[in-house]
Amino acid sequence: MKWVPQFWFLQSCIIVLFLLANSLGELQDPYNTLGIHKKASQQDIRRAYLQLAKSWHPDKSSDPSASQKFMQIKQAYELLSDPERRKRYDLKGITEDDFHNRPERSFPSDPFEEIFSHHNHFNFQENDITFFHKLSITTRQYDKQIVPKSATTPYLIFYYNDWCFPCLQTAPHCRKLIDHLEPLGINFVTVHSGHEPNLAKRMSIHSLPCIVLLLDGNTYVFKDTITSLSKLIEFIRQKLPYKLVPKVMEDDLEEFLSGWEDNKVRGLIFEPRETVRLRYLVTAYHFRHRVAFGFVDSDEIRNKYQVPQDMDTVLLFNENTSRPMTSVTMKDIPTSTLHHIISSNQYLALPRLSSQDVFEALCPCEWHKPRKRLCVILITEESNKHNPHREALRIFAQNSPYAMDKVRFAYIYHGKQIEFVNSLIPEGSAVEPMLRIVILWRRDVSHVKYEWFNEKWESNYDFNDSFHKLESSISRLLKTNEALSYEGFIKALFDEHTKGIWGRIISKTLAFLDSIYDGLGKEQILPAVSILGTVLFILLVGYLMAYLVRLEEEDIKKQKATSGNNNNEGSSYQPELKLHELRAEKYNGLIRLLKPGCRTILLILDMQSRQQLIPPFHKSVWPYRKNKSLMFAYMYVERGLSWYKELLQLALPDEPDLNINPRNCVGTVLALNGHRKYFCMFHAKHTERRSKKADASLTSKCNGDPESGAFIGFDSSSESDEEVLLEENLLDGLPNWLDRLFEGTTRRYHFNYWPDFPNK
Questions:
Q1: How many other C-beta atoms lie within 10 A of the C-beta of residue 26?
Q2: Are 423 and 494 in contact (CB under 8 A)?
Q3: Would you say the pTM of this structure is higher than 0.85?
Q4: SS3 per residue for 43-104
Q5: Tens digit of pLDDT for each residue in 478-525?
Q6: 690 vs 561, which has greater pLDDT?
Q7: Is 663 helix (H, G, I), strand (E, B) or coil?
Q8: 689 pLDDT exceeds 50?
Q9: Reduced to 3 DSSP states, what percent helix, strand and coil does the chain have, rounded to the nearest 5?
């Protein structure tokens, strides 16, 4: 038979392949393989691995031994990246992979069994990428299924990619993560970032692998190493809603148990530890809309309810706070057991129909008559005055002989569920629903049969008759052949727990701020803190400067007030404007040696016009007193007439012979620039012109009467009809001329040097 040697040949080939695999499974020195020192840090190991992996990857290297070399690099990195295995290797020199260790290394009896067994050297199940593919979800599944379920169940979302070697490395840790967290009620799913890039972008995934925690539609990125299970558990604990399970001491016990008016059952958690475990936090998150949990940290409360010291115990209370309605005590209470116990006791004896979900749970649909279920509802207002009526029905419900799967009792707020209540009032009926009881039988989602209790529900304590009548009505309606009086369609209940627009805005804002804070790393926090510190420093310095300025202003005001009290006229302090008299000893300082950019404003007067010209000149130049480039002076024409005449001759070379009338010069104002050697002139009778003839008209033959008002450049005969100006009106146009002077539009008369000023 020819197939026999072929079979043995095939088996021999497989044995050879096995021996080759076995030889490959034994690592050489991992430090030499990665080319690092024995004291290398984890960052150095990772950096060396990434560099070698890129060079020796079979898809990138053409070397025939690339596959073998890549396998050695990978195994060396796996060994050294695990602190325990690295320590074992350093102490004992063990190089075999932990998953492949066996007490005996004998040759296998059946090579086929060894090759295809679960624990062979070719088994990469622990690091197989298909493990992530099986748990992978799409964006549609995330939006339609995962996000709604996250309102009660936390989700861990793992982002990966096919060619992500660190993702492969974390596969065993993810398996351990699932084994540890899924029994606690935390689901684990994966997202292929290459197939779902938009979903990864929505969650700000910048590096792989990455784990994201999803709670009630809000995402939180875990930034620590995925291999650290303890850090991940602490991360989940921190991100669960604040004060989900508060501590309850002996002084707080009564207040905590009496808070059932919020329509929630109370639960007490006892543990032989100082902090509540994650399994109870996740359970409290799952039932947070129906049950309020508290963690007991008091030996007095433990002794009161006779709770064992070394066991976990959960007690559930309804309106009767004296004793629990149910309890469970175990060494480690499984999450499934917790969910079963709480689900069966998550409603009060008389709960409020606050949403459609509560209504669906308390009054489920049942169309079959023999199995019909009744829901007894009391219509009340959200007011304390109806508390006795609700308490009366609560007592009836607690002592009711009917099973909970047949009859459930509840109350409703008429003001909040007015559409639901109005849909139960028959057309043409004058039923007043307030403080009345309606008995419902739900045939399907909106179709009901119902009957109103004949009497108004009273709150007095002589209600044996009302109890008896209500019990008779319920017993009658539970019979299969008994029909309810009315039939109709009801409106869905309004969810009283839904947040308003402001509540949603605040929640979204807080979630956004939390996401920003969660997304900030050290590289973002330091620049932000630096910018914030700089802004605060600038504001602080500005505030300090403003404070000092305010103190100075207050000090000046005090000085002014003091000087005002000392002055009989009550005049306030003003900066001084100095008028210098132009003399020979001041000539250099006022004109010749002026600094560049500085000018002297000079008024020409005589002894007779001093009293009339100084005040208007002082008033005109007063606004410019703070200008440090200006100096103000006056000159008696009798003393400086020769200097003035020589100045005009230098500026007007076409007029060699000038006869100056001193009286015509009174009221002239000169702006003298000592550095650039020019002046500008103002006089009430002088109009500036561009022609040389007009420039020459600055001079005049002073033949006329000084009182005639003739000015330099105007002949007395031609100007005899001009208006005579009084001395007090000579400087009326000076403010406008000063404005044009500083605008640079006045005429400038240049010369080569400054003439000497007379000594006498």
A1: 13
A2: no
A3: no
A4: HHHHHHHHHHHHHHCCCCCCCCCHHHHHHHHHHHHHHHHCHHHHHHHHHHCCCCCHHHCCCC
A5: 888 888 889 989 888 988 877 667 766 776 676 666 666 655 555 567
A6: 561
A7: helix
A8: no
A9: 45, 15, 40
